[in-house]
Amino acid sequence: MDEFSSELYEALVSLDRLRAETLFQQAIGHKPPMQVIEELIVPALEQLGEKWNAGQIALSQIYMSSRICEDMVERVLPSMASGRKGHRHLAIVVLSDYHLLGKRIVLSVMRASGFDIFDYGRMDVDELVERVLADEVKILLISVLMLPAALKVKELRSALDAKGSRVRIAVGGAPFLFDPDLWREVGADAMGRTAADAVAIVHRWMEEMA
Amino acid sequence: MTSMQRVLTTLAHQEPDRVPLFLLTTLHGARELGLSIRDYFSRSEHVVEGQMRLLSKYRSDCLYAFYYAALEVEAFGGETLFIDDGPPNTGMPILRRSEDIDRLEPPRVAETSCLCRVLETIRRLKERVGDTVPIIGAAISPFSLPIMQMGFDRYLELIYEQPQRFDRLMAINQTFCVDWANAQLAAGATAVGYFDPMASSTIIPRDLYLKTGHRVAMETLARINGPTATHLASGRGLGIVDDIAATKTAAIGVSALEDLAEWKTATRGRLTLLGNLNGVTMRHWTATLAESEVRGAIAKAGRGGGFILADNHGEIPWQVPEDVLLAIRDVVDRWGCYPLDWVE
Question: Rounded to whole angstroms, how far apart are CA atoms A136 and A69?
Answer without folding.
Answer: 29
